[in-house]
Amino acid sequence: FELSRAVVVIRAHSSCCPTHATGVRCMAQVPSDARTVYIVRHAESRMNVAMETWSLYGMVSERDHGLSAHGVQQCEDLRAKIEQARDLGDADAVAIASRTCTLSSPLCRAVVTGHLALPSVAGPAVVLPDGAERCFVRFFSRDSVGTRRSALA
User: Fold this and answer.
1) Three-class DSSP category at 7
2) Among 61-70, 100-109, 116-125, 143-152, where is mean pLDDT lowest?
3) Quick check: 69 pLDDT over 90?
């Protein structure tokens, strides 16, 4: 079981090395207090299914497409794999299962994926308002708008 990892550097500066004058910190100089971030893409959404089957109605009938039945199954499978790997002592799975925070896009498919696919923890689940994808093709942008707050109540 292996997950992709990315290192987040909070305070990057341009003095790292001459080739990184843009402010990107060289991996050789990652600070000791850096955190590991695990990134999980949302499971299959109903928009993914509509696009795959060329269903125009399916593409435009919703504003913020939730997960398909297969997407829910993908979440359950991922959660089971993480829990199994955690029980076998995999360091990445242990870290995911003991994370202190979960960050998510505000789109339903991302929030539900995080809730279903990741083991529950005591830390907060934070929805990042600016974390949604941006689609500039007007026809497809409905799926990137999100659900109105009033509809969630």
Assistant:
1) strand
2) 143-152
3) yes
Q: Are 21 and 14 in contact (CB under 8 A)?
A: yes
Enter the pTM of the model.
0.68
Q: Considering the chain, what is the average pLDDT of its residues?
A: 75
Location of structure tokens 């497809």: 140
Query: Do residues 73 and 67 touch, judged by C-beta distance below 8 A?
Result: no
Write out the E strands in 28-140: 35-37, 102-104, 125-127
C-alpha 94: how far from its chain's center? 18
Q: Which residues pair with 125 in a beta bridge?
A: 102
Please give the C-alpha separations between residue 36 and each of 4, 7, 13, 101, 116, in angstroms, as whole numbers.
10, 5, 19, 12, 21
Q: 29 and 62 in contact (C-beta within 8 Å)?
A: no
